[in-house]
Specification:
The protein is of the alpha+beta class. It contains 13 helices and 27 strands. The chain folds into four domains: 85 residues, Phosphorylase Kinase, domain 1, CATH 3.30.200; 195 residues, Transferase(Phosphotransferase) domain 1 (Transferase(Phosphotransferase), domain 1); 70 residues, Sandwich (Immunoglobulin-like), CATH 2.60.40.1120; 64 residues, Immunoglobulin-like (Sandwich). A six-stranded antiparallel sheet has the order 1-2-3-4-6-5, with helices on one face. It has a five-stranded mixed sheet with strand order 12-13-17-14-20, with no helix packed on it. It has a four-stranded antiparallel sheet with strand order 16-15-18-19, with no helix packed on it. The radius of gyration is 26 Å and the shape is globular.
Length: 558
C-alpha cells in the first residue's frame, strides 16, 4: 500500500471513486493536513478532466472556495506516473451532515445560501459552471464558515457533453443538465434552489427510488408550494426558492448577484441576519437556538411598514397563483403518456397491477431520513404532511408491472380476489414492496393498502438500513395494523477518542472524531482508530440489533 505521495504522508483513505481516490494526508514540511486527490485512471479523457479541474481551481480564489495548494505529478515505486491535487483540508462537516434529516432555521438558510452563492459568483465570473452543487460538496469548517468544493464536473459556460452523458447528481441538477443540454450559471442556481428547499423543509424535492425517477421529477414535477409551510413572514424567501426552481432557465433569477440582493431583502423583512458565529451557536444549542435580530435601520432595503406589507401581500399572491398553476398542471397533464391520475383532495387510489390496489397519501418525494431517531412533534408532522402533493408517483405510472396471475386460492377466472387491508407505518421512511408490487413510500404517518387476502411477504427498503422482510397474512375485509422501526434492526455506536482519531469500521473510513453515532449491521465488526502521532488501536466487537454502545478510548504515544 502506498504511504507517501510527493511531500504528503497518506493518513487515511476518505473516498475511492472510479477515477480517483481522496486521502487525508499530512505535509510535514508545513505541519498541516491536506486533502489529497490522486488520479488512478490512466485513460486520456479522465486525465484531461483531472487537469481541467486543477486549472479551474487554480483560477478561483475566494474565502468560500476550497484553496488549491499544489497540482503536481510524482513517480511511484512501480514506475507509474501519478497526477495529484492537494487541497485545503477543512476541519468540520458537510451540509448533508449538518442537515441530517432536520429543517434549518430560516436565518441560517439565508446565511448558508449567501455563502454558497458568493462562491458560485466567482466561478461564474471566470466562465465556469460547477454542475454538481449538492449538500456533500458544501463544507462547513469548525468556525461555521462555508466552502464550496469538488469542481471535478465543472464546465465552461454554454458547454455540454459531446458524448451525451449526463454529469452531476440527478436530484440536484437542473432540467437542462438532466437532458444533456448546454449549462449556464442559472443551472447552478437551480441546484441552489434545491438546496434551499431541502434546508427549509428537510425534504429533498426531487429524490426518488431510482435515477430515472429523479431525472423525471427534475424535468417534469414542480415541488409543493413552500408558502403552505413557511407562512407569510417568509413569503419573499419562498418566492425566491420557487423562482430558482423554474424549469426554464430564462425564468429563473438571472445571476448570482440578483440572488444575493434578494437574500438581503429577505433578511430585511425577516429582521434577522446570521453569520458564521450564529451557525456555530446553532450547532451548540440545537433546538434552543434563537436567531439574532437586526435593527430595521440596518436593512439592505429600508422600507416603510406599508411597503413591507405590500411586498408580503404581493409575494403571497404570487405563491397562490403558482400553487394553483401547479395543481392545474397535475390535473390536466401530469401523468405519463398512456396513464391517468385519479386525483382527490386528500388521497390517491393507485392500481399497480391486477393483484393490488393501494389507498394512501401519495408523495413524489423520498426523504433520506425522517428526523432520524428523534420523535416528531405534532408541528413537524403537520409541516411534512402539508408538503405532500396528491398526485401519483411517476414511477408507478411509467413502470407498470407486467400482469401477474393471481394465486389460485385468492381468485378465480371470473371473480376479483377478496381484499384485506394493511395499515402500515415505518420509521424512518422506507419503500414498501408486497409480493413483487411496489406499494410506494411509507413513513411515520400510517397509510392503508388494499391487497389480496392471504399470506405474502412485505419488504421494506431504505438504502441506509438492512432490508426488512415480514411474512404477513391478511384476512378478507379485515385490517392488519403494523408499525415497523428500522432502527430495531441496526446497532448504534458512539466513540469518544482522546486526543482524536480517524475511525475505520471493517476498513471503511467513517471520518475523524468527534463523530455522530455510527450505524452498524448486527454482528462482529473490526474497529480501527488511527492517529499520525499515536498508536493505531484495533479491536473486534460484536453488536446486537437495537443496541446503543459507547466506546471511550485514549490513544497512547508510540
Amino acid at each position: 500500500m502506498i504511504k507517501q505521495i510527493a511531500d504528503y504522508q497518506l493518513i487515511a483513505e476518505l473516498k475511492r471513486g472510479r477515477h480517483a481516490t481522496v486521502y487525508r494526508a499530512f505535509e510535514k514540511k508545513r505541519s498541516r493536513f491536506v486533502l489529497l486527490k490522486v488520479l488512478q485512471a490512466t485513460d486520456d479523457g479522465t486525465r484531461v478532466r483531472f487537469e481541467k479541474e486543477a486549472a479551474y481551481l487554480t483560477k478561483l480564489e475566494h474565502e468560500n472556495l476550497v484553496r488549491v495548494l499544489q497540482y503536481g505529478e510524482t513517480q511511484l515505486p512501480s514506475g507509474k506516473s501519478c497526477p495529484f491535487l492537494a487541497l485545503e483540508f477543512i476541519e468540520g462537516q458537510t451540509l448533508a451532515e449538518l442537515m441530517h434529516g432536520r429543517k434549518l432555521p430560516p436565518d441560517l438558510v439565508i446565511y448558508l445560501t449567501r455563502e454558497i452563492i458568493s462562491a458560485l459568483a466567482v466561478a461564474h465570473g471566470h466562465n465556469i459552471v460547477h454542475r454538481d452543487v449538492k449538500p456533500q460538496n458544501i463544507l462547513i469548517d469548525s468556525e461555521g464558515r462555508v466552502k464550496v468544493t469538488d469542481f471535478g464536473l465543472a464546465a465552461a459556460i454554454g458547454s455540454f457533453d459531446e458524448k451525451g452523458e449526463i454529469a452531476g447528481t440527478p436530484q440536484y441538477m437542473s432540467p437542462e443538465q438532466a437532458r444533456g443540454e448546454a449549462v449556464t450559471p442559472t443551472s447552478d442556481l437551480f441546484s441552489v434552489g434545491v438546496l434551499m428547499y431541502e434546508m427549509l423543509t428537510a425534504i429533498s424535492p426531487f429524490d426518488g427510488e431510482t435515477m430515472v425517477d429523479r431525472i423525471y421529477r427534475v424535468t417534469h414535477e414542480t415541488p409543493a408550494a413552500l408558502g403552505n409551510v413557511l407562512g407569510p413572514k417568509l413569503a419573499r424567501l419562498a418566492t425566491l426558492v420557487h423562482r430558482l426552481l423554474e424549469k426554464k432557465p430564462e425564468q429563473r433569477c438571472p445571476n448570482a448577484e440578483f440572488v444575493l440582493q434578494e437574500l438581503a431583502a429577505c433578511e430585511a423583512e425577516l429582521q434577522q441576519r446570521a453569520e458564521a458565529s450564529d451557525l456555530n451557536r446553532f450547532l451548540a444549542e440545537g433546538e434552543q437556538y434563537q436567531p439574532k435580530a437586526i435593527a430595521a435601520a440596518s436593512s439592505a432595503r429600508p422600507q416603510s411598514r406599508a411597503q413591507h406589507w405590500h411586498y408580503v401581500a404581493l409575494a403571497s399572491l404570487l405563491l397562490t397563483v403558482l400553487t394553483g398553476a401547479w395543481q392545474l398542471t397535475r390535473l390536466r397533464g401530469g401523468s405519463a403518456p398512456g396513464n391517468s391520475d385519479n386525483v382527490a383532495k386528500q388521497s390517491t387510489v393507485l392500481t399497480l397491477a391486477p393483484r393490488a390496489q393501494i389507498r394512501q397519501d401519495s408523495s413524489s418525494f423520498f426523504e433520506r431520513e425522517l428526523q432520524a431517531a428523534r420523535p416528531l412533534s405534532a408541528e413537524r408532522m403537520r409541516d411534512t404532511a402539508a408538503l405532500r402533493p396528491t398526485a401519483a408517483m411517476p414511477a408507478a405510472q411509467e413502470q407498470k408491472p407486467e400482469p401477474v396471475e393471481a394465486p389460485p386460492l385468492l381468485s378465480t377466472e371470473n371473480a376479483s380476489p377478496a381484499l384485506g387491508y394493511l395499515h402500515l407505518a415505518c420509521l424512518p421512511v422506507a419503500y414498501a414492496v408486497w409480493h413483487g408490487d411496489t406499494l410506494g413510500r411509507v413513513d411515520i404517518e400510517p397509510a392503508t393498502f388494499a391487497l389480496p387476502a392471504g399470506k405474502q411477504i412485505l419488504t421494506l427498503h431504505n438504502p441506509r438500513f438492512p432490508t426488512v422482510q415480514r411474512v404477513l397474512e391478511l384476512t378478507a375485509a379485515d385490517t392488519l395494523h403494523l408499525s415497523v422501526s428500522l432502527w430495531e434492526n441496526v446497532a448504534l455506536l458512539k466513540v469518544n477518542v482522546q486526543p482524536w482519531a480517524e475511525v475505520f469500521v471493517d476498513s471503511v473510513p467513517y471520518g475523524k472524531t468527534p463523530l455522530r453515532e455510527i450505524m452498524l449491521t448486527p454482528g462482529t465488526h473490526t474497529l480501527t482508530f488511527s492517529h499520525p502521532e499515536r498508536e493505531t488501536f484495533v479491536m473486534k466487537r460484536a453488536f446486537i440489533a437495537g443496541s446503543k454502545d459507547t466506546l471511550n478510548i485514549e490513544l497512547r504515544r508510540e
